[in-house]
Amino acid sequence: MRHASTPPLWKLTDTIRGKKRRLHVEHERAYLAFFRPHLQVQTERAVPSPIFVAALLTVARLRIVRLPDEALTVNDEARDRIIRPIIIDHWRENGGRVPAFGGIKGYVLVLIAGYAGFDFGLPFSITGDRVGAMEKVERLGEATLGTRRGDTQLTGLLKNSPIRVIRVSEDR
């Protein structure tokens, strides 16, 4: 039996759904307000391993390449000429790998903010050549680190530390 002042379960469920919907819309508005076109590095693994590396350095720092303002204000052909050396340099500087995510498979120039975890961008190869038309691109997740569930105080702890690629030679 239900107490007289307790609302029915369906009302509680509707209230929770409404709150989740409002939070989702607020999150999307905030994302749109701060969105800036960028290169997203496409890697062998979508889920980092070990995950604590991605949490300490941040997924965004590992898999997003910021672009100069100039690349965002010129025509498509000039933009592609600017982006090509950025891609080649990024691939070379990182030895074709991203810590915790594995080998670099390609890049996507994310140009348009979408909705519900997806944006839209142009795919590029590791040599900086455009390899297709505009496509739907899944936004990157976020790895968090703390001392207990829901705690994020250690996330990004090393986000300003330099990342050095250690290469192991074949003869060892």
Keywords for this entry:
4 helices, 33% helix
Radius of gyration: 21 Å
Q: Order of helices and strands, N to C?
A: HEHHEHEEEE
- The 3D shape can be described as globular
* Continuous helix count: 4
Any overview of this molecule?
- By secondary structure, this protein is of the alpha+beta class.
- It has one domain.
- 33% of the residues lie in helices and 19% in strands.
- It contains four helices and six strands, in the order αβααβαββββ.
- Strands 1, 2, 3, 4, 5 and 6 form a six-stranded antiparallel beta sheet that branches.
- The N and C termini lie far apart (74 Å).
Q: Helices and strands in order, then pairings?
A:
Layout: H1 9-34, E1 38-43, H2 51-57, H3 59-63, E2 64-65, H4 76-93, E3 97-98, E4 102-112, E5 118-124, E6 135-138
Antiparallel strand pairs: 1-2, 1-4, 3-4, 4-5, 5-6
Summarize the structure.
The protein has 172 residues and is an alpha+beta fold. The protein has helices at 9-34, 51-57, 59-63, 76-93; strands spanning 38-43, 64-65, 97-98, 102-112, 118-124, 135-138. Strands 1, 2, 3, 4, 5 and 6 form a 6-stranded antiparallel sheet that branches.
